[in-house]
Design goal:
alpha/beta, 2 domains, 6 helices
Length: 208
């Protein structure tokens, strides 16, 4: 089982966290990709639409008689072949969401966390609390942890913390989530993941 260093907000190692083997998964890149595609598909609204011949207004009258005009026969001004006509096989509203097996989805999450851990992009904190919401104070904590140069940062907490949430609200590259809501996409899309020890214990309690 991998031993994960636990640091304080001053970036000093204070203890170790004995993680289970689920944080040492490797070779699951295809499963991670599948989980990300599934997440993005489920976020699509699917409200795109184009008007077919039957939906375009007008065109109820036959442009000219069927025969003896020297022109091709036509039944509607809104034919897809005409300017201003309908669209052939255009996109219509649809539901893009689909279900992914729970075991596969959870395995993909731990595989993504394992990769972050192996790449040195996952830091476990002994705790993260603030007396009042202050963006400057939170920015200082991230700087002390060396996370200010990592691009986007994801802070994972065990329970909701209004002070931290409000402090990070004005930081465009910082996101805050609860461990129970964590998903593969958020882990992959952020460059650095900061998780409290309680959050890690909550993740450990998740069944595969």
């Amino acid at each position: 089982m991998p031993a994960i260093e636990i640091k304080d907000i001053n970036n000093k190692v204070v203890s170790n966290f004995e993680a289970s083997e689920r944080f040492a998964l490797s070779g699951k890149e295809s499963l991670i990709h599948e989980a990300v595609v599934n997440y993005l598909a489920n976020q699509r609204q699917g409200t795109h639409a184009t008007k077919t011949k039957g939906l375009v207004s007008g065109g109820g009258k036959k442009p000219w008689k069927q025969k003896h005009t020297g022109r091709a026969r036509s039944g509607s001004l809104r034919s897809p072949l005409w300017r201003g006509g309908g669209t052939i096989f255009g996109p219509q509203p649809r539901d893009y969401s689909y279900e992914m097996p729970k075991t596969a989805r959870r395995t993909a999450l731990f595989a993504a966390l394992s990769k972050k851990l192996a790449d040195g992009e996952l830091t476990v904190l002994d705790g993260l609390t603030m007396e009042k919401p202050r963006t400057k104070e939170l920015a200082g904590i991230l700087k002390g942890l060396g996370a200010d140069k990592e691009g986007s940062v994801l802070i994972v907490l065990a329970n909701p913390d209004e002070q931290i949430l409000r402090s990070a609200r004005n930081m465009p590259r910082v996101s805050v989530m609860q461990a129970g809501d964590l998903n593969v996409y958020d882990v992959v899309v952020h460059n650095k993941v900061l998780a409290t020890r309680q959050a890690m214990e909550t993740l450990e309690a998740r069944p595969l």
